[in-house]
Amino acid sequence: AILCGVAFISAIIVSIMDINGVKQLGDHQALQTESKKFKLSDIKQFTLTYWLLVMAVMFYYVSLLPFMADASLFVHQKYGYSPRMSSIIVGVVYDLSIVLVPIIGMIIDRIGKRGIMMLVCSFMMIPVYAVLAFTHIHPVIVTAWLGITYSVASAVIWPSIPIVVKQSMLGTAMGVNNSIQMLGVGGANLVVGEILGKNNSLTEEERLVRWKYMMIFLMGTSIACFTAAVFANISDAKRGGILNQSRKQMLQSKYLETEKIISVEHSEKDNNVSDENRPLLGTVQKIN
Fold first, then answer.
1. Could you give the residue ranges of the DSSP H alpha helices within the chain?
2. Rounded distance between C-alpha atoms, residue 30 and residue 264, angstroms
3. Does 113 map to a domain?
4. Is CB count within 10 Å lower at the N or C end of the chain?
5. What is the pLDDT of residue 98?
6. How many CB atoms sit inside 10 A of residue 140's CB?
7. Residue 175 near residue 53 (C-beta atoms within 8 A)
8. CA proximity to 64, closest of 184, 243, 174
9. 47, 239 contact by CB (below 8 A)
10. C-alpha distances in angstroms, 51 versus 38, 117, 199, 222?
11. How far apart are CA 223 and CA 57, in angstroms?
12. Phi-psi region of 112 (alpha: psi -120 to 50; beta: other; left: phi over 0)
């Protein structure tokens, strides 16, 4: 309850900061103009790049979250560590991300290349599950590796979505993305549950075989994530390569877009004024 209260207060503060920030950036008028025009049917305007990003996000979390849910038990049963030590080893994923995500985020903001980094982190996910399935490398090495990929993904995948959709459609875009992600994760959990079965009733050898099948499944979803990221980069390149732009390039593009929107709005207002001044019955003919 305390955490929910903190989250609620934080959301209010962020909303106020966002409103003030938009006004200071001069985007308030442009955003209002876009919002007035938005209709739910405009969801069909989402680009192919957006939908490929949604698929990449879904497959990434399908690869990560089911594993994290069972990782402590996996480490305990395969490597023989105590439940407490197994939890500590698995926690390395999040411990590393606490430190790395802000640093990687600042670097990505400067250099851009979100699309390329998305390819890198999704590709790096694939060997993680191959190593867990077929080798006995110390698990902390693998969880540290996974923590690095998670840090990169957190800094590039979700922040890429606001780049490829209009501001007025951002809430819808993020909602659709989250719904599809949860649908994928829910389905993956069912598959993993079927693979593992009733773990307590199995022999040690049977458990290890089930864990291996689970890792192979997650390796397959990682490959699907990488494939979606490849096609997202191809689609984005055909539309100007905005995903791989640096912060400076994005600000320049945003400035030009805002100026264009404001110019269109002023033009529409001028036309309305002209229409109001026009005689109702057409041009008045001078009578000689």
1. 2-25, 28-37, 48-79, 83-111, 114-134, 139-164, 170-196, 204-238, 247-277
2. 10
3. yes
4. C
5. 92
6. 16
7. no
8. 184
9. yes
10. 19, 18, 37, 17
11. 13
12. left
> What whole-number distance in Å separates Cα of residue 189 and Cα of residue 208?
18
What is the C-alpha to C-alpha distance for residues 33 and 262, in angstroms, rounded to an integer? 8
CB contact at 8 A, 226 and 126: yes
In this structure, what token pair is assigned to residue 122? 């999704």
CA atoms of 147 and 97, how far apart (whole Å): 6
Q: Which of 62, 249, 231, 235 is nearest to 153 (CA)?
A: 62
Q: pLDDT digits over 30-75, tens only? A: 555 555 455 666 678 889 999 999 999 999 999 999 999 999 999 9
Residue 76 domain boundaries: 46-238
Whose tokens are 């390395």? That residue is 92
Query: Amino acid letter at 183?
Result: L
Any domain includes 286: no
CA angle 162, 67, 109 (to 5 degrees): 25
Does a structural domain hold residue 177? yes
The CATH number given to whatever domain includes residue 167 is: 1.20.1250.20
Q: How many CA atoms lie within 13 A of 112 on its CB side?
A: 13
DSSP for residue 281? T
Condensed to tens digits (0 to 9), the pLDDT of residues 118-142 reads: 999 999 999 999 999 999 899 999 9
Q: Find the radius of gyration of the CA atoms of the chain.
A: 25
CA dist 229 and 235 (Å) reads 10
